[in-house]
Amino acid sequence: MSEEQSKEARHHARMERKKAVIDEKIAAAQIERGVLLINTGNGKGKSSAAFGVLARALGHGLKAAVIQFVKGRSDTGEEGFYRRVAATMPGALSWHVSGEGFTWETQDSSRDAAAARAAWDLARGYLADPGIGLVVLDEMTYAFKYGWLDLPQVLATLAARPAMQHVIITGRGAPEALVEAADTVTEMTLVKHAFKAGVKAMPGVEF
Predict the structure, then answer these.
(1) For residues 138 and 207, is the Cβ–Cβ distance under 8 A?
(2) N or C: which end of the chain has fewer CB within 10 A?
(3) 56 and 13 share one domain
(4) CA 35, CA 60: separation in Å to the nearest integer?
């Protein structure tokens, strides 16, 4: 056997062992239910990742709702794109820009709190609807950081949602109790960001 053939044989053997392990894990995962996902951390991409899953859900024919808790602008690329998608899929997607903008922009804690509570009232309606397959609660973690929402109440509502409904919550500093309640948690880590080098937020990348 040549050195190349020996290398290929070792690779084949490794892949066979790996496939056996993966197949065993797939066979063991037989539960079908809605999952709670958290995208948190200081890195870029938390909301972007959620909107990628939104595309996947719509592609599978699920109905979805997006509630944005802090963001107040309606000129983002994702909203523009998904509003065009929604126009071709009547009833498939509801999108709510419910924030007043970031706290350093509003400088009005009572207004921010009221906006967060109004967003949560919207969210609760979707979280009680078994016809909605995915609910995205964008930037919701800030509502806990600033005390705008009661975390135990939110956790109870999430736990009582329809069995097959998926929920994604995004935002920095997800509280420990929320992380514990989640099925999948991803922490985005900041390595570099163009903004720190003086590059302004660019449409199509940052918004």
Answers:
(1) no
(2) N
(3) no
(4) 16
- 78 plus 17 within the same structural domain: no
The pTM for the full model equals: 0.85
Q: Which of 197, 207, 67 is nearest to 125 (CA)?
A: 67
Look-up of token digits 């949560």:
120
Does one domain contain both 119 and 149? yes
The CATH number assigned to the domain holding 166 equals 3.40.50.300
Q: What mean pLDDT is predicted for residues 198-202?
A: 84
Q: Do 193 and 62 contact (CB within 8 A), yes or no?
A: no
Judgement on whether residues 21 and 115 belong to the same structural domain of the protein: no
Say how many C-beta atoms besides its own lie within 10 A of residue 190's C-beta.
11
Residue 8 is part of which domain span?
Answer: 1-30
Phi, psi at residue 138, to the nearest 5°? -80, 130
CA nearest to 195, candidates 182, 206, 187: 206
Helix segments in 29-140, DSSP class H: 46-59, 77-88, 103-106, 109-127
Whether 146 and 95 share a structural domain:
yes
CA-to-CA distance for 155 and 178, rounded, in angstroms? 7
Q: Does residue 202 lie within any of the structural domains? A: no
User: Using alpha carbons only, how large is the chain's radius of gyration in Å?
Assistant: 21
Q: What is the pLDDT of residue 204?
A: 80
Whole-number pLDDT of residue 73: 66
User: Whole-angstrom Cα distance, residue 110 to residue 63?
Assistant: 33
